[in-house]
Batch of 2 targets.
Target 1
Amino acid sequence: MSEQPLPVIGITTYSRNEAGEFYLPGPYIDAVQLAGGIPILLPPNQPAPDQLLAIVDGLIFSGGGDIDPALYGGEHHPTIYLVDAERDTFELALAKAAIDSHIPVLGICRGMQILSVASGAELITHVPDVYGETIHHRLDHPRRPIGHAVQVSPTSRLATMLGESEIAVVSWHHQAIKTVPDGWTVTAQAADGLIEALEYRQHPWLFAVQWHPELSPDDPVHQRLFQALVAAASRGRLERRDRAIASTRSAGSGL
Ligand code: MN
Protein backbone atom coordinates (compact mmCIF):
# COMPACT_ATOMS: atom_id res chain seq x y z
CA MET A 1 0.00 0.00 0.00
CA SER A 2 1.41 3.37 -0.92
CA GLU A 3 1.94 5.78 1.96
CA GLN A 4 0.87 8.91 0.09
CA PRO A 5 -2.90 8.79 -0.48
CA LEU A 6 -3.98 9.56 -4.04
CA PRO A 7 -6.47 12.41 -3.84
CA VAL A 8 -9.89 12.16 -5.49
CA ILE A 9 -10.60 15.11 -7.78
CA GLY A 10 -14.25 15.61 -8.71
CA ILE A 11 -14.82 17.21 -12.12
CA THR A 12 -18.16 18.70 -13.17
CA THR A 13 -19.61 17.53 -16.51
CA TYR A 14 -22.10 18.56 -19.14
CA SER A 15 -25.72 17.42 -18.71
CA ARG A 16 -27.14 14.44 -20.57
CA ASN A 17 -27.14 15.04 -24.33
CA GLU A 18 -29.70 13.93 -26.93
CA ALA A 19 -27.99 10.56 -27.19
CA GLY A 20 -28.43 10.08 -23.43
CA GLU A 21 -24.72 10.54 -22.70
CA PHE A 22 -23.09 12.68 -20.05
CA TYR A 23 -20.05 14.38 -21.48
CA LEU A 24 -16.68 15.69 -20.39
CA PRO A 25 -13.74 16.33 -22.74
CA GLY A 26 -10.97 13.81 -22.06
CA PRO A 27 -8.14 16.33 -21.49
CA TYR A 28 -9.56 17.21 -18.02
CA ILE A 29 -9.27 13.56 -17.00
CA ASP A 30 -5.82 13.24 -18.56
CA ALA A 31 -4.57 16.32 -16.72
CA VAL A 32 -5.74 15.07 -13.30
CA GLN A 33 -4.29 11.60 -13.88
CA LEU A 34 -0.99 13.00 -15.13
CA ALA A 35 -0.78 15.10 -11.96
CA GLY A 36 -1.34 12.01 -9.79
CA GLY A 37 -5.00 12.43 -8.86
CA ILE A 38 -7.99 10.11 -9.23
CA PRO A 39 -10.61 11.84 -11.41
CA ILE A 40 -14.28 11.21 -10.71
CA LEU A 41 -17.04 12.81 -12.75
CA LEU A 42 -19.80 14.81 -11.11
CA PRO A 43 -22.81 14.98 -13.47
CA PRO A 44 -25.36 17.72 -12.76
CA ASN A 45 -28.42 15.61 -11.96
CA GLN A 46 -27.72 15.29 -8.25
CA PRO A 47 -30.08 16.41 -5.51
CA ALA A 48 -27.57 17.28 -2.77
CA PRO A 49 -24.49 18.96 -4.29
CA ASP A 50 -23.03 19.91 -0.90
CA GLN A 51 -22.79 16.23 0.09
CA LEU A 52 -20.33 15.67 -2.74
CA LEU A 53 -17.73 17.58 -0.74
CA ALA A 54 -17.51 14.63 1.63
CA ILE A 55 -16.29 12.28 -1.11
CA VAL A 56 -13.75 14.43 -2.94
CA ASP A 57 -10.42 15.93 -1.91
CA GLY A 58 -10.46 18.57 -4.63
CA LEU A 59 -12.77 19.95 -7.29
CA ILE A 60 -12.51 21.16 -10.86
CA PHE A 61 -15.34 23.25 -12.28
CA SER A 62 -14.96 22.51 -15.99
CA GLY A 63 -15.72 24.47 -19.13
CA GLY A 64 -19.00 24.47 -21.04
CA GLY A 65 -21.73 26.67 -22.43
CA ASP A 66 -22.93 30.07 -21.29
CA ILE A 67 -24.52 30.66 -17.90
CA ASP A 68 -28.13 31.91 -18.02
CA PRO A 69 -27.85 35.74 -17.73
CA ALA A 70 -30.91 35.72 -15.44
CA LEU A 71 -28.67 34.14 -12.77
CA TYR A 72 -26.41 37.20 -12.57
CA GLY A 73 -28.81 39.99 -13.42
CA GLY A 74 -27.56 40.20 -17.00
CA GLU A 75 -29.41 41.00 -20.20
CA HIS A 76 -30.19 38.31 -22.71
CA HIS A 77 -27.96 38.45 -25.82
CA PRO A 78 -28.67 36.76 -29.18
CA THR A 79 -25.25 35.08 -29.14
CA ILE A 80 -25.86 33.24 -25.83
CA TYR A 81 -25.48 29.51 -26.45
CA LEU A 82 -25.79 26.12 -24.75
CA VAL A 83 -27.63 27.44 -21.70
CA ASP A 84 -28.35 24.50 -19.40
CA ALA A 85 -30.61 25.20 -16.42
CA GLU A 86 -29.91 21.86 -14.73
CA ARG A 87 -26.15 22.34 -14.95
CA ASP A 88 -26.32 25.98 -13.84
CA THR A 89 -28.42 25.10 -10.77
CA PHE A 90 -26.23 22.17 -9.76
CA GLU A 91 -22.92 23.93 -10.27
CA LEU A 92 -23.99 27.12 -8.49
CA ALA A 93 -25.02 25.09 -5.44
CA LEU A 94 -21.80 23.06 -5.55
CA ALA A 95 -19.75 26.24 -6.02
CA LYS A 96 -21.34 27.93 -2.99
CA ALA A 97 -20.62 24.86 -0.85
CA ALA A 98 -17.04 24.60 -2.20
CA ILE A 99 -16.33 28.28 -1.55
CA ASP A 100 -17.44 27.79 2.07
CA SER A 101 -15.31 24.64 2.42
CA HIS A 102 -11.54 24.14 2.73
CA ILE A 103 -11.39 21.76 -0.23
CA PRO A 104 -9.01 22.91 -3.01
CA VAL A 105 -10.95 24.23 -6.01
CA LEU A 106 -9.86 25.01 -9.57
CA GLY A 107 -12.26 26.79 -11.91
CA ILE A 108 -11.60 26.57 -15.64
CA CYS A 109 -13.35 28.84 -18.19
CA ARG A 110 -17.09 28.43 -17.48
CA GLY A 111 -15.92 27.09 -14.10
CA MET A 112 -14.32 30.45 -13.25
CA GLN A 113 -17.56 32.15 -14.24
CA ILE A 114 -19.69 29.79 -12.12
CA LEU A 115 -17.51 30.35 -9.04
CA SER A 116 -17.69 34.11 -9.62
CA VAL A 117 -21.46 34.19 -10.13
CA ALA A 118 -21.85 32.05 -7.00
CA SER A 119 -20.00 34.86 -5.18
CA GLY A 120 -22.17 37.60 -6.69
CA ALA A 121 -20.27 38.55 -9.86
CA GLU A 122 -21.86 39.84 -13.03
CA LEU A 123 -20.66 38.56 -16.39
CA ILE A 124 -20.14 40.15 -19.77
CA THR A 125 -22.60 38.31 -21.99
CA HIS A 126 -20.73 38.83 -25.27
CA VAL A 127 -17.01 39.69 -25.01
CA PRO A 128 -16.62 41.63 -28.32
CA ASP A 129 -19.31 44.12 -27.18
CA VAL A 130 -17.00 45.25 -24.35
CA TYR A 131 -13.45 44.41 -25.40
CA GLY A 132 -13.78 44.61 -29.19
CA GLU A 133 -11.84 42.18 -31.32
CA THR A 134 -8.22 43.26 -30.98
CA ILE A 135 -7.75 39.93 -29.22
CA HIS A 136 -9.88 36.95 -30.12
CA HIS A 137 -10.93 34.87 -27.13
CA ARG A 138 -12.42 32.16 -29.35
CA LEU A 139 -12.91 31.51 -33.03
CA ASP A 140 -16.52 31.63 -34.13
CA HIS A 141 -16.81 29.85 -37.47
CA PRO A 142 -16.51 27.07 -36.59
CA ARG A 143 -16.28 27.61 -32.84
CA ARG A 144 -12.87 26.49 -31.67
CA PRO A 145 -10.03 27.53 -29.39
CA ILE A 146 -7.42 30.17 -30.20
CA GLY A 147 -4.17 31.21 -28.55
CA HIS A 148 -3.43 34.55 -26.92
CA ALA A 149 -1.00 35.97 -24.37
CA VAL A 150 -1.85 36.52 -20.71
CA GLN A 151 -0.04 38.72 -18.18
CA VAL A 152 -0.05 37.23 -14.68
CA SER A 153 0.52 39.62 -11.74
CA PRO A 154 4.16 38.87 -10.85
CA THR A 155 3.46 39.08 -7.10
CA SER A 156 0.45 36.73 -7.20
CA ARG A 157 0.34 33.20 -5.83
CA LEU A 158 -0.67 32.18 -9.36
CA ALA A 159 2.61 33.51 -10.81
CA THR A 160 4.55 31.61 -8.15
CA MET A 161 2.60 28.45 -8.96
CA LEU A 162 3.07 28.76 -12.73
CA GLY A 163 6.67 29.90 -12.45
CA GLU A 164 6.11 32.59 -15.09
CA SER A 165 4.15 35.81 -15.45
CA GLU A 166 3.99 36.11 -19.25
CA ILE A 167 2.24 33.06 -20.61
CA ALA A 168 0.60 31.82 -23.79
CA VAL A 169 -2.84 30.29 -23.23
CA VAL A 170 -5.49 28.38 -25.14
CA SER A 171 -8.64 30.51 -25.01
CA TRP A 172 -12.18 29.39 -25.83
CA HIS A 173 -14.79 31.49 -24.09
CA HIS A 174 -17.76 33.60 -25.05
CA GLN A 175 -18.41 35.39 -21.78
CA ALA A 176 -16.12 36.99 -19.22
CA ILE A 177 -16.08 38.46 -15.71
CA LYS A 178 -17.63 41.94 -15.51
CA THR A 179 -17.59 42.67 -11.78
CA VAL A 180 -15.17 41.16 -9.28
CA PRO A 181 -16.88 40.00 -6.08
CA ASP A 182 -15.69 41.12 -2.63
CA GLY A 183 -12.73 39.10 -1.41
CA TRP A 184 -11.69 38.05 -4.91
CA THR A 185 -8.51 39.28 -6.59
CA VAL A 186 -7.73 39.63 -10.29
CA THR A 187 -4.40 37.89 -10.88
CA ALA A 188 -4.14 37.83 -14.68
CA GLN A 189 -5.37 39.81 -17.67
CA ALA A 190 -5.17 39.67 -21.44
CA ALA A 191 -3.71 42.68 -23.29
CA ASP A 192 -7.24 44.00 -23.94
CA GLY A 193 -7.88 44.10 -20.19
CA LEU A 194 -10.13 41.04 -20.01
CA ILE A 195 -9.91 39.26 -16.64
CA GLU A 196 -8.13 35.95 -17.19
CA ALA A 197 -7.60 34.70 -13.62
CA LEU A 198 -9.06 35.20 -10.15
CA GLU A 199 -8.35 33.88 -6.72
CA TYR A 200 -10.40 33.98 -3.56
CA ARG A 201 -8.15 34.91 -0.66
CA GLN A 202 -10.59 33.82 2.05
CA HIS A 203 -10.26 30.21 0.91
CA PRO A 204 -7.03 28.22 1.42
CA TRP A 205 -6.80 27.08 -2.23
CA LEU A 206 -9.26 28.51 -4.73
CA PHE A 207 -7.95 29.54 -8.12
CA ALA A 208 -9.82 30.18 -11.33
CA VAL A 209 -8.60 30.75 -14.86
CA GLN A 210 -10.50 31.86 -17.93
CA TRP A 211 -8.25 29.88 -20.26
CA HIS A 212 -7.95 26.10 -20.79
CA PRO A 213 -4.79 24.67 -19.14
CA GLU A 214 -6.00 21.13 -19.91
CA LEU A 215 -5.65 21.90 -23.63
CA SER A 216 -1.89 22.50 -23.19
CA PRO A 217 -0.87 18.99 -22.06
CA ASP A 218 2.70 19.38 -23.26
CA ASP A 219 3.31 22.74 -21.60
CA PRO A 220 4.73 22.30 -18.07
CA VAL A 221 3.58 25.81 -17.10
CA HIS A 222 -0.07 24.83 -17.51
CA GLN A 223 0.36 21.40 -15.97
CA ARG A 224 1.64 23.07 -12.77
CA LEU A 225 -1.94 24.20 -12.08
CA PHE A 226 -3.11 20.58 -11.93
CA GLN A 227 -0.02 19.49 -10.00
CA ALA A 228 -0.66 22.23 -7.42
CA LEU A 229 -4.34 21.27 -7.14
CA VAL A 230 -3.51 17.59 -6.66
CA ALA A 231 -0.76 18.41 -4.13
CA ALA A 232 -3.13 20.59 -2.10
CA ALA A 233 -5.86 17.92 -2.29
CA SER A 234 -3.38 15.25 -1.22
CA ARG A 235 -2.31 17.31 1.83
CA GLY A 236 -5.97 17.73 2.81
CA ARG A 237 -6.64 14.00 2.44
CA LEU A 238 -3.62 13.17 4.58
CA GLU A 239 -4.70 15.62 7.29
CA ARG A 240 -8.22 14.20 7.38
CA ARG A 241 -6.84 10.64 7.55
CA ASP A 242 -4.49 11.55 10.40
CA ARG A 243 -7.30 13.23 12.31
CA ALA A 244 -9.49 10.14 11.82
CA ILE A 245 -6.68 7.86 13.09
CA ALA A 246 -6.08 10.13 16.10
CA SER A 247 -9.76 10.20 17.03
CA THR A 248 -10.01 6.40 16.67
CA ARG A 249 -6.98 5.98 18.94
CA SER A 250 -8.26 8.36 21.59
CA ALA A 251 -11.67 6.64 21.51
CA GLY A 252 -9.95 3.23 21.76
CA SER A 253 -7.79 4.24 24.72
CA GLY A 254 -10.80 5.54 26.60
CA LEU A 255 -9.38 9.11 26.78
MN1 MN B 1 -9.25 34.61 -23.22
Target 2
Amino acid sequence: MTNDVLILAIESSCDETSVSVIKNGTDIVSNEVLSQIDSHKRFGGVVPEVASRHHVEGITTTIDAALENAALTMEDITAVAVTEGPGLIGALLVGINAAKALAYAYDKPLIPVHHIAGHIYANHLERPLTFPLMALIVSGGHTELIHMKDHLDFEVIGETRDDAVGEAYDKVARTIGLSYPGGPQVDQLAAEGKDVYDFPRVWLEKDSYDFSFSGLKSAVINKLHNLRQKNEEIEPANVATSFQNSVVEVLVGKAVQACKDYDVNQLIVAGGVASNKGLRQALNDACDEAGITLSIPNPKLCTDNAAMIGAVAYYLYQAGVTADMTLNGNSGMDIEMMNQ
Ligand code: KG4
Ligand code: ZN
Protein backbone atom coordinates (compact mmCIF):
# COMPACT_ATOMS: atom_id res chain seq x y z
CA MET A 1 0.00 0.00 0.00
CA THR A 2 1.48 3.38 -1.01
CA ASN A 3 0.33 6.92 -0.34
CA ASP A 4 0.52 7.82 -4.00
CA VAL A 5 -2.45 9.75 -5.35
CA LEU A 6 -3.42 8.16 -8.67
CA ILE A 7 -5.97 10.16 -10.65
CA LEU A 8 -7.78 8.81 -13.67
CA ALA A 9 -8.62 11.89 -15.76
CA ILE A 10 -11.02 12.23 -18.70
CA GLU A 11 -11.10 15.06 -21.29
CA SER A 12 -13.75 15.28 -24.02
CA SER A 13 -14.53 19.00 -24.39
CA CYS A 14 -13.88 19.31 -28.13
CA ASP A 15 -12.45 16.93 -30.74
CA GLU A 16 -10.08 14.75 -28.71
CA THR A 17 -11.16 11.85 -26.50
CA SER A 18 -8.41 11.54 -23.93
CA VAL A 19 -7.90 9.51 -20.75
CA SER A 20 -4.83 9.65 -18.54
CA VAL A 21 -3.52 8.34 -15.25
CA ILE A 22 -1.49 10.92 -13.30
CA LYS A 23 0.54 10.16 -10.17
CA ASN A 24 0.88 12.86 -7.49
CA GLY A 25 -0.01 15.69 -9.87
CA THR A 26 3.15 15.51 -11.95
CA ASP A 27 3.94 11.99 -13.23
CA ILE A 28 2.23 10.88 -16.42
CA VAL A 29 1.64 7.15 -15.94
CA SER A 30 -0.41 6.90 -19.14
CA ASN A 31 -1.96 9.40 -21.56
CA GLU A 32 -4.22 8.16 -24.36
CA VAL A 33 -5.41 10.68 -26.96
CA LEU A 34 -7.88 9.68 -29.67
CA SER A 35 -8.07 12.51 -32.22
CA GLN A 36 -11.12 13.08 -34.44
CA ILE A 37 -9.47 15.67 -36.68
CA ASP A 38 -9.74 13.53 -39.83
CA SER A 39 -13.54 13.27 -39.44
CA HIS A 40 -13.97 17.04 -39.10
CA LYS A 41 -11.56 17.97 -41.91
CA ARG A 42 -14.10 17.59 -44.68
CA PHE A 43 -16.45 20.05 -42.91
CA GLY A 44 -13.70 22.64 -42.43
CA GLY A 45 -14.20 22.73 -38.65
CA VAL A 46 -15.48 20.77 -35.65
CA VAL A 47 -19.12 19.65 -36.05
CA PRO A 48 -20.48 19.33 -32.48
CA GLU A 49 -22.85 16.42 -33.18
CA VAL A 50 -20.13 14.46 -35.00
CA ALA A 51 -17.76 15.15 -32.10
CA SER A 52 -20.24 13.78 -29.53
CA ARG A 53 -20.77 10.60 -31.54
CA HIS A 54 -17.04 9.95 -31.82
CA HIS A 55 -16.61 10.48 -28.09
CA VAL A 56 -19.36 7.92 -27.41
CA GLU A 57 -17.65 5.43 -29.73
CA GLY A 58 -14.18 5.96 -28.28
CA ILE A 59 -14.57 6.65 -24.57
CA THR A 60 -14.72 3.07 -23.23
CA THR A 61 -11.76 1.76 -25.22
CA THR A 62 -9.73 4.87 -24.35
CA ILE A 63 -10.41 4.35 -20.61
CA ASP A 64 -9.41 0.68 -20.93
CA ALA A 65 -6.23 1.59 -22.83
CA ALA A 66 -5.22 4.22 -20.24
CA LEU A 67 -5.58 1.70 -17.39
CA GLU A 68 -3.89 -1.09 -19.34
CA ASN A 69 -0.90 1.07 -20.31
CA ALA A 70 -0.57 2.16 -16.70
CA ALA A 71 -0.75 -1.53 -15.63
CA LEU A 72 -3.45 -0.55 -13.14
CA THR A 73 -7.09 -1.41 -12.43
CA MET A 74 -9.85 0.90 -11.18
CA GLU A 75 -9.28 -0.47 -7.66
CA ASP A 76 -5.81 1.16 -7.66
CA ILE A 77 -7.20 4.59 -8.63
CA THR A 78 -7.62 7.25 -5.89
CA ALA A 79 -10.09 9.55 -7.69
CA VAL A 80 -11.72 10.19 -11.06
CA ALA A 81 -11.38 13.65 -12.65
CA VAL A 82 -13.21 15.08 -15.64
CA THR A 83 -13.44 18.29 -17.66
CA GLU A 84 -16.65 20.07 -16.56
CA GLY A 85 -16.28 22.95 -19.05
CA PRO A 86 -15.93 25.08 -21.06
CA GLY A 87 -16.46 23.25 -24.34
CA LEU A 88 -19.10 21.66 -26.55
CA ILE A 89 -21.92 20.56 -24.29
CA GLY A 90 -22.65 17.23 -26.02
CA ALA A 91 -18.96 16.38 -26.08
CA LEU A 92 -18.44 17.33 -22.42
CA LEU A 93 -21.40 15.18 -21.34
CA VAL A 94 -19.86 12.00 -22.77
CA GLY A 95 -16.76 12.38 -20.59
CA ILE A 96 -18.80 13.49 -17.57
CA ASN A 97 -21.17 10.51 -17.78
CA ALA A 98 -18.27 8.09 -18.12
CA ALA A 99 -16.52 9.69 -15.13
CA LYS A 100 -19.71 9.59 -13.03
CA ALA A 101 -20.26 5.91 -13.90
CA LEU A 102 -16.69 5.00 -12.85
CA ALA A 103 -16.81 7.08 -9.67
CA TYR A 104 -20.17 5.55 -8.69
CA ALA A 105 -19.33 1.94 -9.57
CA TYR A 106 -15.92 1.96 -7.83
CA ASP A 107 -16.88 4.36 -5.04
CA LYS A 108 -14.20 6.96 -5.86
CA PRO A 109 -14.30 10.74 -5.41
CA LEU A 110 -15.35 12.64 -8.56
CA ILE A 111 -13.34 15.83 -9.31
CA PRO A 112 -14.63 18.46 -11.80
CA VAL A 113 -11.93 20.43 -13.67
CA HIS A 114 -11.91 23.60 -15.80
CA HIS A 115 -10.41 22.95 -19.25
CA ILE A 116 -8.24 26.10 -19.33
CA ALA A 117 -6.92 25.40 -15.84
CA GLY A 118 -5.87 22.10 -17.42
CA HIS A 119 -3.98 23.86 -20.21
CA ILE A 120 -2.14 25.96 -17.60
CA TYR A 121 -1.23 22.88 -15.54
CA ALA A 122 0.15 21.11 -18.63
CA ASN A 123 3.24 23.18 -17.77
CA HIS A 124 3.33 21.67 -14.27
CA LEU A 125 3.80 18.19 -15.80
CA GLU A 126 7.21 19.34 -17.09
CA ARG A 127 8.45 21.87 -14.51
CA PRO A 128 6.82 23.22 -11.33
CA LEU A 129 4.63 26.30 -11.55
CA THR A 130 6.33 29.00 -9.45
CA PHE A 131 4.12 31.74 -8.03
CA PRO A 132 3.23 34.46 -8.66
CA LEU A 133 3.01 33.77 -12.41
CA MET A 134 1.34 35.06 -15.54
CA ALA A 135 -0.34 32.60 -17.91
CA LEU A 136 -0.91 33.41 -21.56
CA ILE A 137 -3.70 31.18 -22.89
CA VAL A 138 -3.78 30.79 -26.66
CA SER A 139 -6.19 28.11 -27.87
CA GLY A 140 -8.91 27.54 -30.44
CA GLY A 141 -11.57 28.92 -28.09
CA HIS A 142 -9.67 31.22 -25.71
CA THR A 143 -7.12 34.03 -25.62
CA GLU A 144 -6.51 35.22 -22.08
CA LEU A 145 -3.96 36.56 -19.66
CA ILE A 146 -4.38 35.00 -16.20
CA HIS A 147 -2.53 36.08 -13.08
CA MET A 148 -1.95 33.35 -10.45
CA LYS A 149 -0.68 34.04 -6.94
CA ASP A 150 -0.88 30.38 -5.89
CA HIS A 151 -2.26 27.00 -6.92
CA LEU A 152 -5.96 27.22 -7.81
CA ASP A 153 -6.00 31.00 -7.69
CA PHE A 154 -6.94 32.41 -11.10
CA GLU A 155 -7.44 36.11 -11.92
CA VAL A 156 -8.33 36.87 -15.54
CA ILE A 157 -6.70 40.25 -16.32
CA GLY A 158 -7.35 40.28 -20.07
CA GLU A 159 -9.22 38.33 -22.72
CA THR A 160 -10.24 38.52 -26.36
CA ARG A 161 -13.17 40.76 -27.18
CA ASP A 162 -14.04 38.75 -30.30
CA ASP A 163 -12.21 35.83 -31.95
CA ALA A 164 -9.78 33.54 -30.18
CA VAL A 165 -6.31 33.46 -31.68
CA GLY A 166 -6.59 29.81 -32.84
CA GLU A 167 -9.90 30.64 -34.48
CA ALA A 168 -8.24 33.52 -36.38
CA TYR A 169 -5.47 31.15 -37.52
CA ASP A 170 -8.01 28.61 -38.76
CA LYS A 171 -10.06 31.25 -40.62
CA VAL A 172 -7.02 32.81 -42.30
CA ALA A 173 -5.86 29.30 -43.23
CA ARG A 174 -9.19 28.62 -44.89
CA THR A 175 -9.01 31.83 -46.95
CA ILE A 176 -5.63 30.79 -48.34
CA GLY A 177 -6.98 27.34 -49.17
CA LEU A 178 -5.56 25.22 -46.34
CA SER A 179 -7.50 22.39 -44.68
CA TYR A 180 -8.72 22.29 -41.04
CA PRO A 181 -7.06 22.78 -38.60
CA GLY A 182 -5.06 25.39 -40.47
CA GLY A 183 -3.04 26.79 -37.55
CA PRO A 184 -0.08 24.39 -37.83
CA GLN A 185 0.04 24.83 -41.63
CA VAL A 186 0.02 28.65 -41.39
CA ASP A 187 2.84 28.30 -38.85
CA GLN A 188 4.86 26.21 -41.30
CA LEU A 189 4.22 28.58 -44.24
CA ALA A 190 5.07 31.62 -42.10
CA ALA A 191 8.64 30.39 -41.80
CA GLU A 192 9.01 30.61 -45.60
CA GLY A 193 7.47 34.01 -46.43
CA LYS A 194 8.09 37.74 -46.00
CA ASP A 195 6.06 40.34 -44.09
CA VAL A 196 5.06 42.33 -47.17
CA TYR A 197 1.48 43.27 -46.19
CA ASP A 198 2.13 44.98 -42.85
CA PHE A 199 -1.26 44.06 -41.32
CA PRO A 200 -2.50 46.13 -38.34
CA ARG A 201 -1.29 45.45 -34.80
CA VAL A 202 -4.37 45.68 -32.57
CA TRP A 203 -3.23 47.05 -29.21
CA LEU A 204 -6.64 48.46 -28.08
CA GLU A 205 -6.58 51.17 -25.36
CA LYS A 206 -3.35 51.90 -23.54
CA ASP A 207 -3.00 49.69 -20.44
CA SER A 208 -5.59 47.16 -21.64
CA TYR A 209 -4.61 43.49 -21.50
CA ASP A 210 -7.52 42.57 -23.77
CA PHE A 211 -7.07 41.25 -27.30
CA SER A 212 -9.00 41.58 -30.56
CA PHE A 213 -8.37 39.51 -33.67
CA SER A 214 -11.48 40.03 -35.80
CA GLY A 215 -10.13 43.27 -37.35
CA LEU A 216 -6.90 41.56 -38.34
CA LYS A 217 -8.82 38.62 -39.79
CA SER A 218 -10.95 41.03 -41.87
CA ALA A 219 -7.81 42.92 -42.99
CA VAL A 220 -6.35 39.65 -44.30
CA ILE A 221 -9.59 38.65 -46.06
CA ASN A 222 -10.00 42.14 -47.63
CA LYS A 223 -6.40 42.18 -48.81
CA LEU A 224 -6.81 38.79 -50.51
CA HIS A 225 -10.09 39.92 -52.06
CA ASN A 226 -8.46 43.08 -53.48
CA LEU A 227 -5.50 41.19 -54.87
CA ARG A 228 -7.80 38.63 -56.51
CA GLN A 229 -9.93 41.37 -58.08
CA LYS A 230 -6.82 42.96 -59.56
CA ASN A 231 -5.66 39.53 -60.75
CA GLU A 232 -2.47 39.99 -58.80
CA GLU A 233 -0.58 36.93 -57.69
CA ILE A 234 -1.00 35.92 -54.05
CA GLU A 235 1.91 34.26 -52.31
CA PRO A 236 0.33 32.24 -49.44
CA ALA A 237 3.60 32.19 -47.51
CA ASN A 238 3.74 36.01 -47.48
CA VAL A 239 0.14 36.17 -46.20
CA ALA A 240 1.01 33.65 -43.47
CA THR A 241 4.16 35.53 -42.41
CA SER A 242 2.43 38.93 -42.41
CA PHE A 243 -0.54 37.58 -40.39
CA GLN A 244 1.62 35.67 -37.93
CA ASN A 245 3.94 38.64 -37.31
CA SER A 246 0.96 40.79 -36.40
CA VAL A 247 -0.48 38.17 -34.01
CA VAL A 248 2.83 37.33 -32.38
CA GLU A 249 3.91 40.94 -31.82
CA VAL A 250 0.72 41.74 -29.90
CA LEU A 251 0.63 38.49 -27.89
CA VAL A 252 4.26 38.83 -26.84
CA GLY A 253 4.03 42.58 -26.19
CA LYS A 254 0.99 42.28 -23.91
CA ALA A 255 2.23 39.16 -22.08
CA VAL A 256 5.63 40.70 -21.26
CA GLN A 257 4.02 44.00 -20.22
CA ALA A 258 1.63 42.11 -17.90
CA CYS A 259 4.58 40.26 -16.30
CA LYS A 260 6.32 43.58 -15.63
CA ASP A 261 3.18 45.33 -14.31
CA TYR A 262 2.31 42.44 -11.98
CA ASP A 263 5.95 41.87 -11.02
CA VAL A 264 5.96 38.15 -11.79
CA ASN A 265 9.01 36.12 -12.74
CA GLN A 266 7.41 33.23 -14.60
CA LEU A 267 5.42 33.43 -17.81
CA ILE A 268 3.70 30.22 -18.78
CA VAL A 269 2.04 29.66 -22.12
CA ALA A 270 -0.81 27.24 -22.71
CA GLY A 271 -3.23 25.99 -25.37
CA GLY A 272 -2.95 24.68 -28.93
CA VAL A 273 -1.37 27.85 -30.37
CA ALA A 274 1.46 27.56 -27.82
CA SER A 275 2.97 25.00 -30.20
CA ASN A 276 3.41 27.78 -32.82
CA LYS A 277 7.10 28.01 -33.67
CA GLY A 278 7.09 31.75 -34.43
CA LEU A 279 5.36 32.52 -31.11
CA ARG A 280 7.73 30.27 -29.14
CA GLN A 281 10.79 31.93 -30.68
CA ALA A 282 9.50 35.48 -30.13
CA LEU A 283 8.54 34.70 -26.51
CA ASN A 284 11.95 33.17 -25.89
CA ASP A 285 13.73 36.27 -27.17
CA ALA A 286 11.47 38.76 -25.34
CA CYS A 287 11.63 36.86 -22.01
CA ASP A 288 15.42 36.55 -22.26
CA GLU A 289 15.69 40.27 -22.71
CA ALA A 290 13.26 41.08 -19.87
CA GLY A 291 14.72 38.50 -17.43
CA ILE A 292 11.47 36.50 -17.24
CA THR A 293 11.50 32.69 -16.89
CA LEU A 294 9.45 31.21 -19.71
CA SER A 295 7.62 27.87 -19.59
CA ILE A 296 5.95 26.39 -22.66
CA PRO A 297 4.98 22.70 -22.69
CA ASN A 298 6.14 20.22 -25.27
CA PRO A 299 3.79 20.61 -28.30
CA LYS A 300 2.19 17.22 -27.43
CA LEU A 301 0.97 18.67 -24.13
CA CYS A 302 -0.13 22.00 -25.69
CA THR A 303 -3.12 20.48 -27.51
CA ASP A 304 -6.05 18.89 -25.67
CA ASN A 305 -5.16 15.93 -23.43
CA ALA A 306 -6.35 14.41 -20.15
CA ALA A 307 -2.92 14.48 -18.46
CA MET A 308 -3.31 18.23 -17.90
CA ILE A 309 -6.77 17.63 -16.33
CA GLY A 310 -5.23 15.07 -13.94
CA ALA A 311 -2.53 17.59 -12.94
CA VAL A 312 -5.11 20.18 -11.79
CA ALA A 313 -7.26 17.49 -10.17
CA TYR A 314 -4.42 16.55 -7.82
CA TYR A 315 -4.57 20.02 -6.23
CA LEU A 316 -8.38 19.99 -6.16
CA TYR A 317 -8.20 16.59 -4.44
CA GLN A 318 -5.82 18.04 -1.81
CA ALA A 319 -8.26 20.94 -1.34
CA GLY A 320 -11.17 18.49 -0.90
CA VAL A 321 -13.07 19.67 -3.99
CA THR A 322 -15.44 16.99 -5.26
CA ALA A 323 -18.70 16.82 -7.19
CA ASP A 324 -21.71 14.57 -6.67
CA MET A 325 -23.77 12.62 -9.20
CA THR A 326 -25.65 15.78 -10.24
CA LEU A 327 -22.49 17.08 -12.02
CA ASN A 328 -23.45 18.55 -15.39
CA GLY A 329 -21.48 20.00 -18.29
CA ASN A 330 -20.87 23.77 -18.15
CA SER A 331 -20.14 24.94 -21.69
CA GLY A 332 -19.40 28.57 -20.67
CA MET A 333 -17.65 27.84 -17.36
CA ASP A 334 -15.70 30.73 -15.79
CA ILE A 335 -12.17 29.82 -14.59
CA GLU A 336 -12.48 32.01 -11.50
CA MET A 337 -15.15 29.53 -10.27
CA MET A 338 -12.22 27.18 -9.57
CA ASN A 339 -10.60 29.54 -7.04
CA GLN A 340 -9.97 27.98 -3.62
O1 KG4 B 1 -6.08 24.12 -27.20
P1 KG4 B 1 -6.55 23.46 -28.43
O2 KG4 B 1 -5.99 22.11 -28.80
O3 KG4 B 1 -8.10 23.32 -28.43
C1 KG4 B 1 -8.92 24.22 -27.76
O4 KG4 B 1 -9.12 24.05 -26.52
O5 KG4 B 1 -9.37 25.16 -28.44
O6 KG4 B 1 -6.27 24.49 -29.64
C2 KG4 B 1 -6.59 24.22 -30.98
C3 KG4 B 1 -6.20 25.42 -31.82
C4 KG4 B 1 -6.66 25.32 -33.28
O7 KG4 B 1 -7.26 26.55 -33.62
C5 KG4 B 1 -5.35 25.09 -34.06
O8 KG4 B 1 -5.39 25.60 -35.38
C6 KG4 B 1 -4.39 25.87 -33.21
O9 KG4 B 1 -4.76 25.56 -31.87
N1 KG4 B 1 -2.99 25.45 -33.43
C7 KG4 B 1 -2.04 26.28 -33.93
C8 KG4 B 1 -0.84 25.52 -34.01
N2 KG4 B 1 -1.12 24.25 -33.54
C9 KG4 B 1 -2.44 24.25 -33.19
N3 KG4 B 1 -2.10 27.56 -34.32
C10 KG4 B 1 -0.97 28.14 -34.79
N4 KG4 B 1 0.21 27.47 -34.89
C11 KG4 B 1 0.32 26.17 -34.52
N5 KG4 B 1 1.49 25.53 -34.63
ZN1 ZN C 1 -8.04 23.11 -25.28
